[in-house]
Amino acid sequence: MNDSRSLFFVPVLDVLSVLIVLEVVIVVCSFLFTERDQDMPDIMDQSIVVFLILLIASWFNFFIRPYKNDPSSPPLYGWEVGGAFLCFLGIATIVVPASLMIWVFLQKGLWTLPDFLMADASFQGLLNVASILSVSIGLLLYSLGLRTEAQRAVWGNRARGIKNVLHDFFMGASTWLICYPLVALLAQLIARFEPSDQEQTAVKALRMTTETPLLFAFTALLVVFLVPIAEEMLFRGFLQTWLRQKLGWRYAILVTSLIFALFHYSSAQGTANLTLLSSLFILSCFLGFLYERQGSLWASIALHMMFNGISVLILMESMQGPA
Fold first, then answer.
1. Of 298, 323, 182, which Cα lies nearest the Cα of 236?
2. Chain centre to alpha carbon of residue 300
3. Is the pLDDT of residue 7 over 50?
4. 3-state class of 30 per DSSP?
5. Beta carbons of 301 and 176 less than 8 angstroms apart
6. Summary mean pLDDT of the chain
7. Which helix (H) or strand (E) holds 283?
8. Quick check: 281 and 179 in contact, CB under 8 A?
9. Could you give the CA distance from residue 68 to residue 293 in angstroms, rounded to a whole number?
10. What's the CA gap between 216 and 316, in Å, rounded?
């Protein structure tokens, strides 16, 4: 049996089955707690809508992989994956901070950051921009330095030709309509049981730049367009591709999604970590499935861009306040 095309008869971890089980849990929780929380009826209505969206997506064969993995695809070696993570983490935690300290020493003759810089929101925003640019460019240069077969393994066998790229990009962007309602519903339900007023660290960093409109605009563009490319290369292109060779595509998606979510953990987020990491895990499962479904990294990049873009728009709307 071709398990890549079966919806209900795969051994375990069928994509639609997992989502439907999750949706049933949400509906049951909504029903049980309707009398205890006046907002629960709204959550129950939303859960029914999400359930219908999943069924419609299934009807149009979204959860079927039309392109099977090419068994002749070149392997991605563990050292290549480790090198990508070393590049990512090394630049973010060593190169950028060290460069900053050298700059401060040359300018001020100090080996520690002055308090006025630490308290300057614009300076912190510029530091975030420098970190995003450095990590993204470093990761891109690293990937370009690998053998051609490794680059093809990272980007996918179908990520060639403008027609394929546009098709995969459109598929990824349109998947937001399926993914976002489920992610938002799950986050809303978890927030009912574990309320928190803590913001995501990335949101705080973006909000800090609002006093400088040009810096805010540039940071927002990086978050929407450059961050998704870098993160998808690292997690889907390198990590998930390598794990697929070891575990198969289903378990590769799950393990990659868990690592992706944990990478966004921050002690500063407090109890908001539960809502954030759960939401990111579901989002990452969609990103990973898209990568496997389309055989192209452009599909997951497009969904990631859409998700970040809508999040930035929501942040901008919230900052404007009521009219």
1. 298
2. 9
3. no
4. helix
5. no
6. 82
7. helix 272-294
8. no
9. 8
10. 10
H or E element in which residue 48 lies: helix 40-59
pLDDT in tens, 28-77: 655 555 455 555 556 777 778 888 888 888 888 888 887 766 666 778 99
Q: Please, which residues have CB within 8 angstroms of residue 118's CB and are 6 or more apart in sequence?
A: 124
3-class SS of residue 323: coil
| Helix residue ranges per DSSP H, 208-271 | 213-221, 227-232, 241-247, 249-263
DSSP per residue over 150-216, as a string? HHHHHH-TT--SHHHHHHHHHHHHHTHHHHHHHHHHHHHHHHHHS---PPPHHHHHHHGGGGSHHHH
Contacts of 96 (CB under 8 A, 6+ apart): 127, 130, 131, 134, 135
Q: Buried b / exposed e across 294-312, counting CB within 10 Å, b at 16+?
A: bbbbbbbbbbbbbbbbebb
Return the DSSP state at 8.
Answer: S
Q: Cβ(228)–Cβ(310) under 8 Å?
A: no
3-class SS string, 294-320:
HCCHHHHHHHHHHHHHHHHHHHHHHHH
221-271 pLDDT, tens digit each: 999 999 999 999 999 999 999 999 999 999 999 999 999 999 988 776 666
> Tokens representing 246?
């070891």
Instruction: Return the structure tokens found at 292.
Output: 């496997």
**Spatial CA neighbour of 286 closest among 195, 184, 155:** 184
**Angle in degrees, CA 133, 134, 135, rounded to 5:** 95
| Gap between the Cα atoms of 286 and 300, Å rounded | 8
Asked whether 72 and 149 are in contact (CB, 8 A), the reply is no
In sign, the C-alpha dihedral spanning 215, 297, 16, 22 is negative
| φ, ψ for residue 139, nearest 5 deg | -65, -40
Q: Model confidence over 129-139: pLDDT tens digits?
A: 999 999 999 99
